[in-house]
Specification:
By secondary structure, this protein is mainly alpha-helical. It has 49 helices and 8 strands. The protein has a 5-stranded parallel sheet with strand order 2-3-4-1-5, sandwiched between helices. Helix 32 packs parallel to helix 34.
C-alpha cells in the first residue's frame, strides 16, 4: 500500500547485549542438535527486548532456522485468546504449508481452534475437563513434528499482555516439550509485573523449571549509550549531549532514541518537561494534523489495526489517509505490519501515551466508530477476531444495548476455541451489563449456547428470552472448565440463592445447579456431594423425562459407583440410561451406560457389565467422543483388575494411554496410567510400577491420578521393606485425597499401607486401630478388591506378633475383628478366593493352629493366578509349616528356593530375609545344585545358639529383663547380659524386641497355643 518510507532515529547499530545474544545463539545450537530450548527475556519497557530478539532471529534465519513470531495483544484482557500462538502458527503455515498439514495428523478441526485457516472447529460439541488440555497437547505435538526435520524458533512477545489461555498454553508447552529442534523465546515487560499481575505467579512457577533459562536485560551503561548515540547520529556525539541523554534516559535504549529526536527538533534535553508522556508525545505533536488524528485512531483500535477498518473509522479521503500514514511511518511512530494489511505502533509505550492523552468522550466516540465500521463491513478483520473485537469496541463505547449482545456472541466464540477463562471474563462482563441494558434488548436475546445440558426453561429456546440464571449457568461451567473451581462454586451458590425458596417453581434449573455444586464440592474436597445429589433427585422426582433429569441420575449413579455400588446406584444408572434415551441425549446415555456396566461388574453380573462397557467404547469411538472412549478404557481396565485378570487390564489400560495421548486427553492419560500401575503391581512387575508412578507424579494434571501415583509408591515401598519411604508417600496420598470425601478405592489401600508400615515398625496397637477404623467404614459391595489386601496385611501382623508380651493385651478382640472382616468380604472370583484362603490360614497361624496341608491349598490356589508376591509368601509359609511338622526337607528347600527367586525378582527385601533366615535355621541350602544338608542336632540350631542361649532367648521373647532372666536361670545379671549380646549378634538383630519377634516367627522358641 505504501512505498518505501524513510524512517529516522532507530538505532542502526546493535549495542551491547553480547552475553545475552550468546546465550540465545548457544540455545539455537543445542536445539539444532535435537535438544529443545526455552528462554524467557525480561526487562523494563524500552530497554531493548524486541531489538535483541530481532538480532537473534536474524542470526537464526541465517543458519537456516524457520522463525515464527507471535505477539500478545492488549485486547487479550477482553477475551482474544491464544493471540500469539495463532499468529505464530499462521506464520508457520505461510512458510511450511504442506509440512504443517502433515504434522496436524488428521486433527485439523481441533487445531482450527488456534488456527481457523485449518478448517471448521465444529459447533457446540460437549465441553469436558479435558478439552483445553487436548488442544494444548495437540499443539505441542504439532510443533514437535514440525521441528523433527528442521530447526524451529518460536517467539512469543509481550507476555505481560497475555490472556489466561495463552499463559496456560505457554506453561504447558514448556512443561511437556521433550523432543524436536525447537527454541521457544518469550519476552515480558518486567516493570508492569505488579504484585497482583497474573503473570507474577506464572514467573515464580517457571523459575522452578530446569528446562527454562531466564535472561534479564539491564539498562545501558554510559559507554553503551555513547555507542548508541554514535550509531543514531552517524557521528561522534558531543560529550555534553551524551551526559545529558544518559542522565535523562537512565540507560533506557528507547528513551535515548526519543531524547535524540527532541534534541534534533531543537528542544534541549535539559528543558524537557518531567513527564514521560510529554517526552513520548514530542514526535507525535510534530506530525501534520491528519497524521496526528490517524495516530490517535490507531491507538484506540488495538495492537494492530487493519487498513480497511482504519479507513472506515478515519473517514479521510484515501490520498489524505495515505499521506497521513506515510508521515506517521516516516517518523517511526507507526509501522506497516509485515505479514498483513495493517498498522501498529513501533513501540507500545508511544501507543499508551497517545491513548492516555485521549479525552474520555473522544475514546468512547472512537470505539463507537470502530464498532459501527466493523458491523458495516467485517471483512478487514480476521474471522476469529471479529466477535471479540466488536464486543470490546461496544463495551468501551459505553453502549449497553449494543455491548450485551456483542459480548454474549464473543463468549460463544471463545468457548468454541476452548478458551474457557476468556469465556468466563466475557460472561462476567455480560452480567455486569445485564441490568444496564434496556429491557427490550434483554427480551430479544435467546439462549444461544447452553452450558452442557442446562435446561432451556423447560420451554422453547427459540421463543423464550435469555435469563440471568442462564448466564450464571454458563459462567459456572466456564469457571469449572478453566480450572477456577472456587469461582464456579461461588457462581453456583449465587444462582441457588437467586432461586431461593422458588426451587420447586423452576426445578430443572435448581436441580442442575445442585448437581454442579455436588461435583465441585467433591473436586474441591469440601464434601462428598451426597446431600446436593439428594436435593437434585428430590427436585426432579415425578417430572417428565429431560436431559437434566438424566444428568441428575448419572450423578447419583456415579456417586454410588465410587462410594456404595449397591442396588440404589444400579437403579439410578438404569433410569439415567432410560431417560437419556427418551430425550435422545446420546452423549448422556453413553456416559450412563458406562457407569451402569461398571456397577454391574461390581454386583457380580460380569458378562453383562463388560459387554456394556465394550459397547460404549466402540460407540463413542465411532462418534468421535474420545473423552468418553478413554473413560471406557479406564473403567474396563479397572473392572478386569477387579476380576483378577491383570494381564488383560494392563493391555486395556495401555490402549487407553495410547488413545488419550493421541487425542491430547491429558487427564485421561493420568487415570489410565494409574490403573496400569495398579495392575503391574499385582503382576509383580514392580520396577515398572515405580517408573509409571514417578512419571505420573510428574505429568498428572488432576489430584486423583497424582494421589494414585503416591499411593502406588507407598505400597511398593512397604512391600520392599522401606517403611520410612512408604510413610512419606502415604502422607502425600492422604494430603491429595483429603478427609471429607472418603472413597473406598482410596481409603482402603491407604489403610493397608498404614497397617504395613505399623507392622514393620512393631506398632501392633496401630495395626489394630487402622483395621478397626476400616471396619467401621464398612466394605461396600465390590470393595473386596481393596479389603482383602488390607485384612491379609493386618492378620499377618497379628500372626507375626503372636507370643510377644506387647501384643497380648487386646489380642482376643483383635482376632475377633479379623474374623468379622473375613465374614464381611466376598470372594466371587479365584483371585479373591485365594486371598481368603491365605488370610484364613494366617488367622490360624495367629491362633497357633496352622497346618502344612492348608498352606498347600493356599499355594495351589495362587499358582495359576499371576500373583508372584502372594505365591512366594505362601510357599515360604508352606515350607515353614513342613519344617515345623518335621520331614519333607527337600520339598521345603524347593519351596524356599522358589520363594527366594521371586523375592529377588520383586526386590522384596522382607520376604528375602525371612526365606534366608528360615533356610539358615533349618540348615537348608538355597543353591539348586546342592543337596540339602542334614538337619540340625537336637538342642542346637543353625544360628549357633547354645542350649543356654536358647533358654535366654525364650525368656527374652517372654519379655523378661536381664535381672529376671538371671533369677530364673540362677546366673548373674551380668552373665545374662552377655548371653543377650551374643544372641543379638548371632541373630543379626538390633534389639531385644526384634530378637523376640524373630524367635517367634522362626519357631526358635515354643509359642503358646
Amino acid at each position: 500500500m505504501l512505498g518505501p518510507v524513510e524512517t529516522r532515529s532507530v538505532s542502526p547499530v546493535f549495542v551491547g547485549r553480547a552475553g545475552e545474544l550468546t546465550a540465545l545463539t548457544e540455545a539455537l545450537s543445542r536445539a539444532t542438535a535435537g535438544e529443545p530450548q526455552a528462554l524467557l527475556i525480561g526487562g523494563e519497557a524500552g530497554v531493548g527486548k524486541t531489538r535483541l530478539i530481532e538480532e537473534f532471529t536474524g542470526t537464526a534465519r541465517d543458519r537456516g532456522a524457520v522463525v515464527a513470531l507471535g505477539g500478545c495483544v492488549e485486547l487479550g484482557a477482553d477475551g482474544l485468546p491464544f493471540a500469539p500462538f495463532s499468529a505464530a502458527l499462521r506464520a508457520l503455515r505461510r512458510w511450511l504449508p504442506d509440512e504443517l498439514t502433515a504434522a496436524a495428523d488428521g486433527q485439523h478441526g481441533e487445531l482450527a481452534r488456534l488456527l481457523p485457516e485449518l478448517g471448521d472447529p465444529g459447533g457446540h460439541d460437549p465441553a469436558d475437563e479435558d478439552s483445553t488440555a487436548r488442544l494444548f497437547e495437540l499443539t505441542v505435538r504439532l510443533l514437535e513434528r514440525l521441528a523433527a526435520d528442521r530447526t524451529l524458533v518460536l517467539v512469543l512477545e509481550d507476555l505481560h499482555w497475555a490472556d489466561t489461555s495463552t499463559r496456560h498454553l505457554f506453561t504447558y508447552l514448556l512443561r511437556t516439550l521433550r523432543r524436536g529442534r525447537i527454541v521457544v523465546v518469550a519476552s515480558y515487560r518486567a516493570d508492569d509485573i505488579h504484585r497482583r499481575h497474573p503473570l507474577r505467579p506464572l514467573l515464580a512457577e517457571l523459575d522452578r523449571l530446569r528446562t527454562l533459562r531466564r535472561i534479564e536485560l539491564p539498562r545501558f551503561t554510559r559507554t553503551e549509550v555513547h555507542r548508541q548515540l554514535t550509531g543514531i547520529l552517524a557521528a561522534e556525539p558531543d560529550p555534553g549531549l551524551v551526559e545529558e541523554v544518559f542522565e535523562r534516559s537512565d540507560g533506557n535504549a528507547f528513551f535515548v532514541e526519543e531524547l535524540v529526536v527532541s534534541h534534533e527538533a531543537g528542544c534541549a534535553p535539559g528543558r524537557l518537561g518531567d513527564s514521560l508522556r510529554d517526552l513520548l508525545l514530542v514526535r507525535v505533536e510534530a506530525l501534520p494534523e491528519d497524521a496526528q488524528r490517524v495516530v490517535r485512531i490507531v491507538a484506540e483500535g488495538g495492537s494492530t489495526v487493519e487498513y480497511g477498518l482504519l479507513a472506515a473509522v478515519a473517514r479521510l479521503a484515501e490520498d489524505d489517509l495515505i499521506e497521513a500514514l506515510r508521515a506517521a511511518v516516516g517518523a517511526n511512530i507507526l509501522l506497516a505490519v509485515p505479514d498483513g494489511d495493517g498498522y501498529r505502533f513501533r513501540h507500545s509505550l508511544v501507543r499508551e501515551a497517545v491513548s492516555d492523552d485521549l479525552l474520555p468522550g473522544e475514546r468512547s466516540r472512537l470505539n463507537r466508530r470502530y464498532a459501527e465500521a466493523l458491523e458495516a463491513d467485517p471483512t478487514p478483520v480476521r474471522a476469529d477476531e471479529r466477535a471479540t473485537r466488536l464486543a470490546t469496541y461496544w463495551y468501551h463505547a459505553h453502549d449497553p444495548a449494543k455491548a450485551l449482545p456483542a459480548v454474549l456472541r464473543a463468549s460463544v466464540a471463545t468457548r468454541k476455541r476452548h478458551a474457557y477463562a476468556e469465556q468466563l471474563r466475557l460472561l462476567e462482563r455480560a452480567m455486569e451489563l445485564w441490568d444496564e441494558a434496556p429491557a427490550e434488548v434483554r427480551a430479544s436475546l435467546r439462549p444461544i449456547d447452553y452450558a452442557e445440558s442446562y435446561p432451556p426453561c423447560g420451554c422453547d429456546p427459540d421463543t423464550t428470552p435469555l435469563r440471568h440464571l442462564d448466564l450464571l449457568a454458563e459462567a459456572a461451567v466456564a469457571a469449572r472448565l478453566s480450572g477456577e473451581r472456587e469461582r464456579a462454586l461461588k457462581i453456583g451458590k449465587t444462582a441457588l440463592r437467586i432461586l431461593g425458596g422458588e426451587e420447586e417453581r423452576d426445578p430443572l434449573r435448581a436441580a442442575w445447579f445442585w448437581t454442579e455444586k455436588a461435583r465441585l464440592q467433591s473436586n474441591l474436597g469440601r464434601g462428598d456431594g451426597r446431600e446436593e445429589i439428594a436435593r437434585a433427585q428430590e427436585l426432579v422426582k415425578g417430572l417428565p423425562p429431560s436431559a437434566v433429569h438424566a444428568v441428575v441420575l448419572v450423578g447419583a449413579a456415579g456417586w454410588g459407583m465410587l462410594r456404595d455400588p449397591g442396588p440404589d446406584a444400579l437403579t439410578a444408572a438404569e433410569r439415567a440410561v432410560e431417560y437419556a434415551r427418551l430425550v435422545e441425549a446420546e452423549s448422556i446415555e453413553l456416559n450412563a451406560r458406562l457407569t451402569l456396566g461398571t456397577i454391574r461388574v461390581a454386583a457380580g453380573d460380569v458378562d453383562a457389565g463388560l459387554a456394556e462397557m465394550h459397547a460404549v467404547r466402540e460407540r463413542t469411538g465411532a462418534l468421535g467422543q474420545f473423552n468418553e472412549t478413554a473413560r471406557a478404557h479406564i473403567n474396563i481396565s479397572s473392572a478386569l483388575e477387579f476380576l483378577g485378570r491383570s494381564h488383560e487390564a494392563v493391555e486395556v489400560a495401555e490402549g487407553g494411554v495410547r488413545l488419550a495421548r493421541r487425542y491430547g486427553l491429558v487427564d485421561s492419560v493420568g487415570w489410565a496410567e494409574a490403573n496400569r500401575a495398579e495392575s503391574l503391581f499385582s503382576l509383580g512387575r514392580w520396577d515398572e510400577v515405580r517408573e509409571a508412578a514417578e512419571r505420573l507424579l510428574r505429568s498428572a494434571t488432576s489430584t486423583k491420578p497424582r494421589g494414585s501415583a503416591s499411593l502406588r509408591l507407598a505400597q511398593l515401598a512397604a512391600a520392599r521393606g522401606e517403611p520410612g519411604a512408604a510413610a512419606r508417600h502415604l502422607a502425600d496420598a492422604r494430603a491429595v485425597y483429603g478427609t471429607r470425601d472418603p472413597i473406598p478405592q482410596y481409603t482402603l489401600p491407604m489403610a493397608q499401607v498404614a497397617v504395613a508400615v505399623a507392622a514393620a515398625e512393631g506398632r501392633v496397637a496401630d495395626v489394630r486401630a487402622e483395621l478397626a477404623a476400616a471396619e467401621r467404614g464398612g466394605f461396600p459391595p465390590g470393595t473386596h478388591r481393596y479389603g482383602w489386601p488390607l485384612v491379609l496385611t493386618a492378620v499377618t501382623a497379628e500372626a507375626d506378633s503372636r507370643g510377644l508380651p506387647a501384643a497380648d493385651e487386646g489380642r482376643a478382640e483383635a482376632l475377633a475383628l479379623v474374623r468379622r472382616c473375613l465374614r464381611a468380604l466376598a470372594a466371587p472370583v479365584p483371585v479373591w478366593a485365594a486371598y481368603a484362603r491365605q488370610a484364613s490360614e494366617e488367622l490360624a497361624r495367629a491362633e497357633g493352629r496352622e497346618t502344612a496341608a492348608r498352606w498347600a491349598e493356599v499355594v495351589t490356589a495362587f499358582e495359576p493366578l499371576d500373583r508372584p508376591a502372594q505365591l512366594a509368601r505362601a510357599r515360604y509359609r508352606l515350607a515353614d509349616a513342613l519344617l515345623t511338622e518335621g520331614g519333607r526337607r527337600e520339598e521345603a528347600a524347593a519351596l524356599l528356593r522358589g520363594a527366594r527367586a521371586a523375592a529377588d525378582l520383586l526386590g522384596a527385601r522382607p520376604l528375602r530375609e525371612d526365606v534366608d533366615l528360615l533356610a539358615a535355621r533349618a540348615r537348608l541350602s538355597l543353591a539348586p545344585e546342592e543337596r540339602p544338608p542334614a538337619p540340625a542336632e537336637p538342642g542346637n540350631d543353625a544360628f549357633g545358639l547354645t542350649p543356654r542361649e536358647q533358654d535366654v532367648l525364650r525368656l527374652v521373647a517372654a519379655g523378661r529383663t536381664n535381672r529376671q532372666i538371671a533369677e530364673e536361670l540362677f546366673i548373674s545379671p551380668k552373665t545374662a547380659g552377655v548371653h543377650v549380646s551374643h544372641i543379638l549378634a548371632k541373630l543379626g538383630v538390633a534389639g531385644r524386641g526384634e530378637a523376640a519377634a524373630l524367635a517367634h516367627r522362626l519357631h526358635l522358641v515354643a509359642a503358646p497355643r
